[in-house]
Amino acid sequence: MLSSFRRAYSIAVHEALPLSNTLTLIPGGTRGIGLATAKLFARHGSRIVVLGRDQERIKHVLEKELAPIHGSNSSVEHLGFQCDVSNQEDIERTIKDLNQVAPVDYLVNSAGIARDSLLIAHASQDIENVISTNLMGTIWLNKAVAKGMMRRKRGAIINISSVVGLQGNIGQSVYSASKSAIIGFSKSLSKELGSRNITVNVIAPGYIDTDMTSSIPEDRKKAIVARTSLGRLGQADDVAEAALFLAQAKFITGQVLVVDGGLSL
Ligand code: NDP
Questions:
Q1: In a domain, 187, yes or no
Q2: Is the pTM above the cut of 0.80?
Q3: Are residues 265 and 63 in contact, defined by beta-carbon separation less than 8 angstroms?
Q4: Is residue 101 domain-resident?
Q5: Pocket test residue of 113, 166, 225, 258 for ligand 1, highest count of atoms within 8 A of CB
Q6: Total domain count for the chain?
Q7: Which segments constitute the Ketoreductase domain (predicted)?
Q8: 265 within some domain
Q9: Could you give the CA distance from residue 229 to residue 151 in angstroms, rounded to a whole number?
Q10: 176 CA distance to ligand 1 centroid (A)?
């Protein structure tokens, strides 16, 4: 009796969640900002699909980070696919497999790499990797999910850029190029998809405390904090909250939401 009450209660709570019966695709959902977003959207009822290159890490995220959110009674099964977003064929194969499961309602594209160097010393391979992962990956992923969203006349896409894409930075010319291009791309796509009730927005984070920024020396981190109005580095959850807001915003599209604690003011 008690267990059937608990089961009914958990189903009722789940159905009341704002993102119930939706699917959120999160390339880069295995770490940092993407992982925080995956957990937040899961807590709001969405089924999560993470993409990353590391199979062990995907397994860890599914079993240790996402499964505990709903407990063992849940009917929500989160998924993970090994997929290199710099490879168009890999993306198309993954989205084809995913479409057999369920259509994508939200794309939060957080997969990205940084390879910092002054341009004259920048290794060609690093330049290609940054552009193919950050920019081409974004383009292929948006293209792959857009068709399904257009057919269903619903969807929200959130691409992660950077304040460096707005302002530039020494040692980050190529990274900045990839992140600026995401903004122009997303604004254009928002115009193409708006009539189908699909929003496309961009988040431009400042410095966020993740694996990506872990190698920044302490004195540089202190200097960044000193220039940040809110007096701290950002946390992955700060960006996840912004992604959740944009996913649910019905009349905001083609915008860049800066999440940097005031760093770029
Ligand atoms: P992390 O390094 O913590 O995570 C990056 C994620 O991207 C990982 O899940 C990684 O998975 C995935 N990834 C990288 N390359 C590929 C690829 N080729 N194919 C599939 N997945 C890939 O970085 P953050 O969470 O900090 O960054 C997330 C996004 O936010 C990035 O686009 C970054 O440029 C942007 N950003 C970050 C800022 C920061 O200060 N941290 C500031 C501004 C923007 P795996 O390694 O398992 O494949």
A1: yes
A2: yes
A3: no
A4: yes
A5: 113
A6: 1
A7: 22-211
A8: no
A9: 44
A10: 14
Ligand 1 pocket member 84 (CB < 6 A): yes
Residue at 28 is within a domain: yes
- Whether the CB of 59 sits within 6 Å of ligand 1: no
Find out whether 61 and 35 touch, Cβ atoms under 8 Å.
yes
Give the C-alpha separation, 185 to 254, whole Å: 10
Q: What ligand 1 atom has the least distance to the C-alpha of 179?
A: 34
Q: Which domain holds residue 213?
A: 2-259
Report the nearest-CA residue for atom 44 of ligand 1. Answer: 162
175 flagged as catalytic: yes
Give the mutation target among 40, 92, 110 for probing the ligand 1 site: most ligand atoms within 8 A of CB. 110
Q: How do residues 114-138 score in pLDDT, each as one tens digit?
A: 999 999 999 999 999 999 999 999 9
Torsion of CA 15, 17, 21, 24, to 10 degrees: -160
Does position 214 have pLDDT exceeding 80, yes or no? yes
